[in-house]
Amino acid sequence: QGQLVESGGGSVQAGGSLTLSCVVSGHDCRANMYWFRQAPGLTGELSREFLSYIGVNNGATKYADSVKGRFTISMNNAKDTVYLQMNSLTPEDTAVYYCKITAGCNVIRGYWGQGTWVNVSS
Asked: How far is CA 110 from CA 32, 45, 66, 85, 101, in A?
């Protein structure tokens, strides 16, 4: 059974920066790694906002308009850690941030981490 462990969350003032990390273990045949966030008061996977993804095999990236130009996704050479560099943070970025991986050698499924809290104060 694989595992995703996020870290790097915390409190920061508006205009500040944070870098989140997600270490992936297990989960062979990895396809894409994602970052999502869930605003305070919302529950369930469907309420999570897509932020960015990176293709494990080709390194292709995509960003939501809400974070384009401020957030940068990257992956280490071992392809087992995905990062989210977040700059120019605003209070609207306050949320629980989740990483997700799609993987599977036969059937591709999505797997989530436990989330890491980011609080941006004004």
From this structure: 9, 11, 23, 22, 6
